[in-house]
Please model this.
Amino acid sequence: MNRLDYALLLEEVEKELAMPGGNFEALYGGDPKALEQARYVAAVALVAADRLYSRITKQEFELREKDEHF
Model:
């Protein structure tokens, strides 16, 4: 995921979190502190998911390389 993709996805998640009458508001109410915490957790989760995907992709590439050399 490049920085633009990350920024766009985070913006989309933030819009969903802040949507009046949306799922987040229905579950947690309109508390601004809870919304800010959710934004932080979303950002951390996106970075973690990106790192995991990157690692898995790298490992898969390395396995293919090994298979091609045998």
